[in-house]
Write a structure and sequence with these properties.
alpha+beta, about 70% helix, Alpha-Beta Plaits, 5-stranded mixed beta sheet
């Protein structure tokens, strides 16, 4: 951290000297286009990680060539009389880019160190979905071969509570690090509640959990317990979807699609909007009377100021009717 402070101070002093070179009575008449090019180049180096990963010679060569093109097209040009000025400007620009790149790389290293320190004790709680889906496939084949039940859970973090948690964490780390930390903590809670034979994977921004030998009743109890534990320990809400083999689906792809659809429906119900749930029920063949009744009840409850908890319970009943049909 002390080195970063020194590098930041060096960059600020150099920029002060370069931007005020004419006021310091140095015989160097810098073209206006140089300042614009320098500002854009520095912002790009600071904000684009792929530029920071480029080798320094390649970065400086590309920046130098682009600078000469920009000055020739938008500036006063590169004439023989002003060649010495152009060379001096080019050297100053490249030196500034090199200093800012060094600072950006140092800041990125600090960020990665902080993240690795925070998440070190959470490694191994989940595996990427691309790796874990093979184990889930195998368990589904085993359940089909031996006529045994199996369930699949999908778990995602609710948007609202996470944003509130971000407000508490953002003073110490960046916003994306806060979300990764919250996700890792939810993964820890899930892993602690799983059996040795259960399979926990992470797919994009949610988790996919394979539960061998688990019936729908077992999976529903587990999902309720997970929701309560995450809320108590982390102050977050989660959306959970559920599908079972062979009662609802018989292939892994259909199980996964059913569980993710159920998870999204839970998110919609938590927000108090029953319309997507109605269309989902219609897509699954829900009778018109049941669908219209559910929508009407939710609409009346909304008009009368029914709480979010009541709306969510109504949504759960609607989903139960849909599954039964």
């Amino acid at each position: 951290m002390k080195t970063i402070r020194y590098e930041l101070a060096g960059v600020m002093l150099w920029l002060f000297a370069f931007l005020n070179v004419e006021r310091l009575r140095v015989p160097l008449e810098t073209a206006a286009v140089v300042y614009g090019f320098l500002a854009v180049a520095l912002l790009a180096v600071l904000l684009l990680p792929w530029l920071q990963r480029l080798a320094l010679p390649a970065l400086l060569a590309a920046a130098g060539a682009l600078f000469l093109v920009v000055k020739a097209v938008a500036g006063p040009g590169i004439a023989a009389a002003s060649l010495s000025v152009t060379v001096a400007e080019l050297c100053c620009v490249l030196l500034t880019i090199a200093m800012v790149r060094r600072l950006a790389v140092a800041l990125q290293d600090v960020e990665q160190t902080v993240e690795s320190t925070m998440f070190a004790h959470l490694n191994g709680t989940t595996v990427p979905f691309e790796l874990g889906q093979t184990d889930i496939y195998r368990e589904i084949r085993r359940a089909r071969r031996h006529s045994r039940p199996m369930s699949l859970l999908t778990v995602s973090i609710a948007d609202g509570p996470v944003k509130a948690t971000f407000h508490q964490i953002v003073e110490r780390i960046q916003r994306d690090s806060a979300f990764r930390y919250a996700t890792a903590q939810v993964a820890r809670v899930i892993a602690e509640e799983m059996k040795d034979c259960d399979i926990v994977t992470q797919r994009d921004d949610h988790f996919v959990v394979g539960l061998p030998e688990a019936t729908r009743g077992d999976a529903e109890k587990l999902s309720q317990r997970l929701g309560s534990l995450v809320r108590e320990q982390l102050g977050l809400d989660v959306h959970i979807g559920l599908s079972t083999f062979p009662d609802e689906e018989v292939t892994f792809e259909r199980l996964l699609a059913h569980a993710e659809l159920d998870m999204r429906a839970d998110a919609v119900e938590s927000a108090g909007d029953p319309l997507p749930v109605q269309s989902e029920g219609a897509a699954n063949g829900t009778p018109n009377g049941t669908s219209n009744g559910t929508t009407s009840a939710a609409t009346n409850g909304k008009a009368n100021g029914v709480s979010n908890g009541s709306t969510k319970e109504a949504g759960k009943r609607a989903r139960a009717v849909r599954r039964a049909s």
